[in-house]
Write a structure and sequence with these properties.
- The structure is a homodimer of 174-residue chains.
- Chain A folds into two domains: 127 residues, 60s Ribosomal Protein L30, Chain: A (2-Layer Sandwich); 31 residues, Wheat Germ Agglutinin (Isolectin 2), domain 1.
- In chain A, 32% of the residues lie in helices and 22% in strands.
- Chain A is built from six helices and nine strands.
- Chain A has a five-stranded mixed beta sheet with strand order 2-1-3-4-5. In chain A, strands 6-7 form a two-stranded antiparallel ribbon. Chain A has a two-stranded antiparallel ribbon with strand order 8-9.
Amino acid sequence: MDGTYKDMIAFHGHSCPGLAIGYRMTKAALDFLSGLRSKDEELVAIVENNACGVDALQYISGCTFGKGNLIFKDYGKQVYTLYDRKTKRGVRVCFMNRAVPQGLRNDRKKFIDWLLSVPDEEIISLKEVRIDEPEPARIMKSAECAFCGERVMETRVREINGKPVCIPCAEKMQ
Amino acid sequence: MDGTYKDMIAFHGHSCPGLAIGYRMTKAALDFLSGLRSKDEELVAIVENNACGVDALQYISGCTFGKGNLIFKDYGKQVYTLYDRKTKRGVRVCFMNRAVPQGLRNDRKKFIDWLLSVPDEEIISLKEVRIDEPEPARIMKSAECAFCGERVMETRVREINGKPVCIPCAEKMQ
């Protein structure tokens, strides 16, 4: 287990099989693309679940919730699609659940060790895909809520009696 | 700038004012609560935007997208609410945008330095709040999609002709 893996555990908060799965999926996808972590929005990830593994994806790929290059589709599937804006290449990785030997899940430590040592092709189904390039994140102007006085992104303002109102204030008034 | 801050920049991918704002908001909220990072789901954060600062929140508080203790409400506001499951205390922090001296935003480096050195009370509005305790994340059973054969969380399965189908397959068939 290298330093990066340990730092990733520290980010997630604990070690678990889900994190190891996300790590393997992300590494496989990155290896297929440029191998580089996304400093800004060079890469985009579309994740089809919001389980532990996505913290591995955030940490390893640099596709993070706060940068806007992490797109969540609530499909409940162990699938990530990574797209490289520079090369316009996309790759879809899926964790092959049925590859896990029976009974192994009962021993958490052994399961993690296995997940970190089994060859890619036994646990990862990978294919190149063409996808429409996702829109980059945009910085929006702000307005001031006429009721609480707090700042609100212009595109999230509601109008009540001709005044700009934030969503929480608007909902309180209903 | 201490080691943690540098590691947080490495996680986000770059240094920016938004990250510094999220750092100050998160630190202020954590200081009000136990001060401890969330290894598992001890803390929950409700964030009212998905901008850069949320990466600081993930990194510093341990409320991460993959652990399920990061709840996103798309209100476009610089507001985080953190809740401690142990003490049942909640705190709401809001960044006071109007405290930023005019013109400072034009000098990115100076703006970041200012954000990291100005006292809490000048930039953070903080109050204790009572909120309903958010549900912890749950692990769901899985089914197999009758079309692609991939695993799907049971609660995301659609039924077509009496067969379990994942959402992407179901959408392709429409």
